[in-house]
Amino acid sequence: MKKQLKSVAIFLSVLMLVGSLFGCASNTNTAGGGKAGDKVTVGIIQFTAHVALDSAREGFIAALQDNNFVEGQNLEIDFQNAQADQSNLSTISDRFVSNKVDLVLAIATPAAQAIAGKT
Q: pTM for the complete prediction?
């Protein structure tokens, strides 16, 4: 139970950090702060499928929509599930870095460690 609470606390901390980054974006022409027609690309790296982790991802996407980031309009989401495999985390992180995604949401500690080591 303590391990789950710690994981939830870490996730919520990361989610608040991500939210603060979006809150700092300047609004020039679009909700994303870019030129008209610009898309924001968000990479989501999730360690494994799990009800709590899936809910976190869905909540993050809902928060983006609440802030006028709509997939297919001004938002592109690249969701990747590593299936609890460290080598998959490394490969996904490398791809996000090489594709220069605008923002990465790492769901679960191993995913956060993998992307942090690449950026």
A: 0.70
